[in-house]
Amino acid sequence: MLWIAGLFGVFLLGIPISFSLGATTLAGLLGMGLPLEVIVQRMFTGIDNFAFVAIPLFILAGNLMAVGGISKRITTFSEALVGHWPGGLGMVAIVASMIFAAVTGSAIAATAAIGALLISEMISKGYSRAYSASLVATAGSIGPIIPPSIPLVVYGVIVGSSIAKLFMGGVIPGLLMGFFLMVANWLISKRRGYVGREKRASAAELRQGLKDAVLALLMPVIIIGGIVGGIFTPTESAAIAVAYALLLGGLVYRELSWKKIAHAFIEAAITNGVILTVLMTASLFIWFMTVKMIPQSITQSLLQVIDTKWGALMVMNIILLIAGTFIDTTSALTIFVPLFLPLVKTFGIDLIHFGVMVAVNLTIGMCTPPLGVCLFVSCEIAGTSLREMFRDLVIMLIPLLILLLLITYVPAVVTWLPDFLGL
């Protein structure tokens, strides 16, 4: 337990997560007298998993969508669909984020792409900078819930669950997340006078918007349909997403230049490098905890004060919500999932239910200071500060917390669709 306390002490010093995990775990393993070759081998085998190939590919697909005109057409169609509602541009941001999420699985990619297209327009139409940034950041958090989902890929590898089943478990919670945010946006817009477009889009405008976006809208249908139909694996779907984005942006929309493609690849490589470094050191951390039986010790300690499944879920939720504000999603998954796994199994909590609950928890963390990466992206685009955003951000987090409680205590919200599909 002293070692765990030391690890979190290093986190609080602001040292990057990968270095914190690597250094503290290395110290513990060397203290056990293990040769360095074994340590290096464990780090390599930790990322030597075919499922992890999906992570850089989904990130790349999101980057290509952003620069290839795909996200722009999705946004234009969303505006024709819901732009006339109260808070119209806010509704557009939420709907576009949901569609974008169904291809990339990344909150940061969704926030950056949709924010770049809509935040300046929202501000020009009278929305406050703080509200525009808060809404786009929370809407972007839908990305890791609606399949495909990068956090669920990482979780599935850690616990050995079916990634396809996890993906389907995230469908209903992701749609509900979008619905709850739309209700919140509608209520706030009514109160503040954020109006939509003057008149509803005509049938001709809707047809034109659909015609322009139909190939982009087919992207999530192909990916999710292919996974459910067993045509390809979740990892293969990531490669298909990249190929589709290249063909659509380059040959159909003709908005992809070699310069844009190179930039998309470089950005994906940088992001993936950070994630893989965390996964390597985290795999070493997980192995060390297993050898020292740390998860079992923590479980025994918690069982002394928790005697029900629902109490265990509440305690884990609170810990994850707090952790998500300080630790990035990948690191939090690799640290806390192995710690909680014995407790989850003790109370017979469904692993699919638990996985989606963890993902929702940590995506809320992506919208919460001080480490809310989606906030930093939307703040930069909107030209505002976290301090100015705080009030609006708290309001927009309320529907997400309500959804988290619903998912936690009504497991069927997560498990019904995978069971119905026979996964």
TrEMBL record:
It comes from the Bacteria. The chain crosses the membrane at residues 6-30, 50-71, 91-119, 131-154, 166-188, 209-232, 238-256, 268-290, 362-381, 393-417. It is a multi-pass membrane protein. GO terms for cellular component: plasma membrane. Keywords: Cell inner membrane, Cell membrane, Membrane, Transmembrane, Transmembrane helix. Residues 5-412 form the TRAP C4-dicarboxylate transport system permease DctM subunit domain. It holds the Pfam family DctM. It is found in: Cell inner membrane. Coiled coil: none annotated. One of its GO terms (molecular function) is transmembrane transporter activity. This is C4-dicarboxylate transporter DctM subunit. It comes from Aminivibrio pyruvatiphilus. The lineage of its organism: Bacteria, Thermotogati, Synergistota, Synergistia, Synergistales.
